[in-house]
């Protein structure tokens, strides 16, 4: 079971392991590469176009949203101000930030703790427990959705933001799996040397293992932040008070109030979509190095 | 290391307390909390869901309540009614104080205990039920109790675009919704397409939203009583088949729906201003929208008539209700009373008149479930438009004529399932994926199954 | 697992049982369980407990507002007879069967092309392909509701360029599912990135050797590329399948979010988890929804196990001599 392994993240120079196809003259090779680049560029344009369309639609007057013209004939930045006047978008943004950070911090720390337990120690029941961890990855969230709701209700927390992240205190199977692979790749001698120097297990984890796997921790953090940022089903279940909404829930409220449920002001809905998307794109560019490598290593076998 | 250790300790405590509580779900809080203090002075805070503040008619009324009770904090969570949001909040035992729901679902929510009976509230706070239109009361009364207080009174009318009709050599009188042959001919003649792209819908019947209304037009309402649904009636099948024929004559329902989805129905680029429609069946509130956004459009508004030339109407309404286990019921009760009182409606109408006058636009009335309020508005405040605005007065008279004696869906415990069933059948029939008879038979089965489940 | 990796001095040979008991007494074991405590607690409280609770609930009629009553296997019987379950299952499986192979084929093709380009360009395009995956799923749903409009949507406008008269993707029950599949292809960036990374790891000398054997491009792809990235392929197939079977957010946003949006889609957009969610949290049929959840669990389990079994046959692991 070595499908997933994280390596210290760094861009690998793409060219160094490949060689151009032999048996082709340089001229043909250039033509061929040009052809491939053009094809990929066309597909890339197709992928980007809807995002540009989204931004463009958010700046159009209501009756031009569907005109499929990329540069708005009339630019209406006031779409954004009317959105911000009508709904507490900044509050939702703040809520998403808080929930996202809580979810990501707790899951990163707890998963690392558990992963280290599995990776470093030899103890009875280890294989069985790890098999259980893997098994829970296959469990659809829907199975536990209703009883979990009842549990939070029992605590009187079913209408707060706590259920959106609190389960992350208990680690998440996928990240445990990911981080365990990483810890296993660390040379065991490092730990043994520290042990000889009188370092305790807690010290091994916190002072040696954690710093060494910072890239992997960042990947886990970003993954979970993104998952939390786009989650709709939990906010639908737990958040009924507008002041507590996260962005996806708020976006749905905007759709209900301005879109189909309201006066079909799609330009406002599009503006809200743009505002909900931008922070993630910014995060993506800031952490791109780790992010792309992190995703790539999800599927790489060691 | 300190942090994970704290987390560990927290986790352990949470787990220990959780084990005692799985599978709970308490039954505390019955209707009892409603009695006793219902006469108390409004205080504290109330929050509503399902209601929005799109215009002065909404804001003035909320402000009226706020002025009467400045100490009460009123939070309006704006947005259309979301059944999932509402029921989940009820099930978490901590619902909002008030909910604004579609009238045809009151019976269903009452039957399952999601909303409280208001009889005591009505009695203790002196809400005069006689002022409401009796047919709307049918909508909100279930099993001998009143469960909701209705607000608007919505009835479909025919809005004709004279510019478009004149181009085709037709006049408003040529559009007869009950006469299939002329309807299909007019629809076909008025529709304009460029290849497969629409430029204009001939006659927009607003399907599937208004589908059951055409059962009323054809003299065959789909619900005869709270437990008597007639979706598989041959007359219902005939209605659906003729609706499909009208849509097909204009190029097919799904394409029409797609075209409709691109409209700016409420804005300056509305389908009448842009001549995207020849005639439209739509509720009377749209006349108010047009009078405001496109005062210069050339339209004629007509009541809709049945085969015998008689006016036929279907009324819907939205209504205020108090969720089960809601707090602060005395204040909520007072809020419902104030929101729907004749004086409040009149204050809202006055504000609208002021705004429209300022713009030189016509005031086209407000249409509520409170007959006393409507009497007040049309008796004391409304003045017929003159000159350019004469046509809007004609429209108002047509709306008032259309409102008489409207049919409503009798309050029933399976309102949601009924709607889901006819909607599904209508979508399939109109799109041509299933024939009318079998789709409606399936729909009828679903409703009867739901009725049986309710018991 | 043997004792020699332990940090404790190697003990003299003991019987199995005694070794076990001795292992439990070691401080290392206690420390290990301390580290594992968060997960163990979480497993008990948020996985095992709820699983049992949901199994119990699935034999009851429970709407949260009123007390639960035991109804035996009624919910499961209803599930088998419910035509909407059949519709939802059909839609979900159809979506999975089409989305998974199609998205992976397209992602693989793009990854291969990226690999051909190499260098900075590849990095740039990889970023571009990944951008849509950063769009919040609710926004994706809203956006495609407009893009897929049959009359003036961007998708049909694009098809129109090629002289194709596109269908009504969001209103025609016959086409709604295909519209959803189109939408799902927009967010395959993650899969592209994974497969691209796997391709970069294929040693170039393997292609060299294949070429010397006279293998053409297609044979190289089949005999070198596919086996060498089979681990990653297997991973994305499993992950995408599980995710597809649980499709929710985009479709819920488009067709089930409010009373108005429910007017047009009809059952052709009904996915299994959407039906389950509505039964549980809209109609408050918590018992029935729990039964539906267990139904989904069984389906996911069976599908995944079948895939793992099949995967064992074709996945090539380095150092494997099978």
Report what the structure shows:
The complex is a heterotrimer of chains A (302), B (455) and C (322). With 302 residues, chain A is mainly alpha-helical. Chain A has helices at residues 26-57, 78-86, 89-120, 126-136, 141-154, 162-165, 173-185, 188-196, 201-212, 214-230, 233-238, 247-258, 266-286, 288-298. With 455 residues, chain B is α+β, with helices and mostly antiparallel strands. Chain B folds into two domains: 39-154 and 316-382, Periplasmic binding protein-like II (D-Maltodextrin-Binding Protein, domain 2); 156-314 and 408-454, Periplasmic binding protein-like II (D-Maltodextrin-Binding Protein, domain 2). In chain B, the strands form four sheets. In chain B, strands 2-1-3-14-6 form a five-stranded mixed beta sheet, with helices on both faces. Chain B is globular and about 65 Å long. Chain C has 16 helices and two strands. In chain C, strands 1-2 form a two-stranded antiparallel sheet. In chain C, α5 runs antiparallel to α9 (189-200). Residues 1-9 of chain C have low confidence and may be disordered. The chains are: A mainly alpha (302), B alpha+beta (455), C mainly alpha (322). Chain C: Belongs to the binding-protein-dependent transport system permease family. Chain C: Its main location: membrane. Chain C: The chain crosses the membrane at residues 31-53, 93-115, 127-148, 175-199, 228-248, 286-306.
Give a quick summary of the entry.
Chain A is an all-alpha fold and 302 residues long. Chain A contains 14 helices and no strands. Chain A is globular and about 70 Å long.
Mean pLDDT score of chain B: 88
CATH superfamily descriptor of the largest domain in chain C: MetI-like
Distance between the termini of chain B: 60 Å
* Biggest interface, chains and residue tallies: A-C, 108 and 122 residues
Broad CATH class of the largest domain in chain B? Alpha Beta
Count up the helices of chain C.
Answer: 16
The tally of strands of chain C reads 2
Biggest sheet overview of chain C: 2 strands, antiparallel
What class, by secondary structure content of chain B? alpha+beta
CATH architecture designation of the largest domain in chain B: 3-Layer(aba) Sandwich
Structural class estimated from helices and strands of chain C: mainly alpha
The CATH class of the largest domain in chain C: Mainly Alpha
Radius of gyration of chain C: 25 Å
Biggest sheet strand line-up of chain C: 1-2
